[in-house]
Amino acid sequence: MPLNINGVEYLSTAQAAERLGVTASTLRTHRSHGTRTQLEMLKLGNVVLYTAASVEREAACRGVGR
């Protein structure tokens, strides 16, 4: 279930990874290596949240869920 902050829906790393068909560690690796990505994120302490809209756009580009 997405978390709503100021009217924007966010997904946890695990939720985003599941929607994209990758593992959470893949997303962490992309962040740590500075891999360019279209995923918009918000870091709160040691928690990283991804905007649901950017995850859905990326999933559509990858053809995930077809």
Automatic annotation (TrEMBL):
Upper taxonomic lineage: Bacteria, Bacillati, Actinomycetota, Actinomycetes, Kitasatosporales
Protein name, per record: HTH merR-type domain-containing protein
Superkingdom of the organism of origin: Bacteria
SUPFAM superfamilies: Putative DNA-binding domain (SSF46955)
InterPro entries: DNA-bd_dom_put_sf
